Amino acid sequence: MTAAAAPGRRERTKAANRAAIVAAARDVFGELGYEAAGVRDVIRRAGLAAGTFYNYFPDKAAVFRAVVEDTGAEARRRVRAARTGVDGFPAFVEEGFGAYFAFIAEDPATFAFLRRNLATLRAAGVDAVLPLGIAELAEDLRALAPGRLDVDYCAHAMVAVGVELGARLIERDPPDVAGATRFATSLFLDGLGGRA
Question: Into how many domains does the chain fold?
Fold first, then answer.
């Protein structure tokens, strides 16, 4: 029984170390920006040995990508949960955009990371996680409105609007989650008319 417990503990330690490094990197990139931040800054913030960092990530770009992927996964989880079980297309659109914009604005560390690194995200990070969100959205749209709209175009358009309005939301002080949600919802509901 003891031999079985050791791998579980080791796996938990590995997961905790990775999470600590990614959280520290998110904070450091949020404060300094990608260009100014270094691996040493992340290591200091994480409170782990340099060797521990390099056991998980080969360089700054890799840990930045991990922050982007983890942030994207959490955003997708929240948006999908908000869309699940809603009654009709209008609620689907409004709840999805609302959950996404709220996620961007509600956590100060995530908000700072996104705000400080918009240019870097556009250049190197966002393209890795968008296809996952588009695929999930297309799947949900197919189930909600089968055969009534071009799901591929609609999913891509909704994600593009979410990303662009999210970027604008981050630049506003204070961020207007309700306004962005209203605008995006109206754009799609009025633009799609009776198709959905």
Answer: 1
